[in-house]
Amino acid sequence: MTVPRQPSSPESPDSPSSPDPAGEGGGPREGRRHMIRRRWLTATIIVLLIGVPAGYLVISANQSRNSGRDKEAKYSATGLTAGWPSKVQRRLYDVPIAPYSREVAYYETNNWRTSRLYAQFLTSNKGLDTFLKQIGTNTTELKRNDITISKRDRKVVGWEFTDPGPWLGLTHKKKDPAPTLDVVVNRVNRDHPMVYVVSTTTP
């Protein structure tokens, strides 16, 4: 007796309707060389996307750190500290440094007789006006070639005032115990005056 032949299963490899074992959708199977190249390209892109920005951040951080160190070295040689005096110092000595000022540095001395705050900052014309107004005076009180900061005080922080001018100055006195302020301004840059202040208090 002859057994009838069974029809091929649709999922049999020999079935004409079975999927192509070379890949889904009948596409050609990816070659090993192509796969390695694709993975290498993907890895390279990832490294570039992560590594390049990180490198820029490191360079920027180092430049900022080096700039800060240069300023500290520059001012430490004269006794000045790069940066802003604390809010308490600015209030006690009545030295309201104008906002957005640059090249800010300060130095404080104390003894049983007097206390002094030395400060410098580069500001704008508006900043200078604001500073003088806040301490109780104005730009009309500035006198040309009047170096009101004494030689002794200049020597303490290394201020020489020998650069091109014009140089202007004023002394603003107040009743004790309020501080007396000696202010010198270098206006070689008409838009950005450099301000030097010595505030002296007598406890």
Helix-strand category: alpha+beta
Strand arrangement within the widest β-sheet reads 1-2-3-7-6-5-4
> What is the overall silhouette?
elongated
Number of helices: 4
Our Rg estimate from Cα atoms comes to 37 Å
Return the string of H and E elements.
HEHEEHEHEEE
The low-confidence parts are: 9-23
Q: Beta-strand percentage? A: 15-25%
Largest beta-sheet details: 7 strands, antiparallel
Terminal CA distance reads 128 Å
Mean pLDDT, nearest integer?
Answer: 80
Helix content: 25-40%
Q: What is the strand tally? A: 7
Notes on the protein architecture:
With about 200 residues, this protein is α+β, with helices and mostly antiparallel strands. The protein is about 35% helix and about 20% strand. The chain is built from four helices and seven strands. The protein has helices spanning about 30-75, 85-90, 125-135, 150-155, and strands at about 80, 100-110, 115-120, 145, 165-170, 180-185, 195-200. It has a seven-stranded antiparallel beta sheet with strand order 1-2-3-7-6-5-4. The radius of gyration is 37 Å and the shape is elongated. Residues about 10-25 have low confidence and may be disordered.
